[in-house]
Design brief:
It is a single chain. By secondary structure, this protein is mostly helical. It has one domain. Helices cover about 95% and strands about 0% of the residues. The protein is built from two helices and no strands. Helix 1 runs antiparallel to helix 2. The chain starts with a helix and ends with a helix. Keywords: Membrane, Transmembrane, Transmembrane helix.
């Protein structure tokens, strides 16, 4: 019963944070495309890499939790 609540909480957190991450990601891509400064572009590339890594890790942990729940 406690594990079920933890899984539901993580699913809720994941579903709430993912749209925010996508909006932030889109803003950084827009800054990368329409900026003239090379320093800003390199900074944005680093942030996009960090965000991509975080999103991939969160999606993989979400999938592993779903697999645990199905077993």
């Amino acid at each position: 019963m406690i594990e079920q609540k933890d899984n539901n909480l993580s699913v809720g957190i994941f579903a709430g944070i993912l749209p925010i991450c996508i909006i932030i990601y889109a803003q950084f891509i827009h800054a990368l495309l329409y900026s003239n400064s090379m320093i800003l572009k390199s900074f944005v590339v680093v942030i996009l890499f960090i965000l991509t890594t975080g999103i991939v890790i969160s999606i993989s942990s979400f999938i592993s939790q779903i697999k645990k729940q199905l077993k």
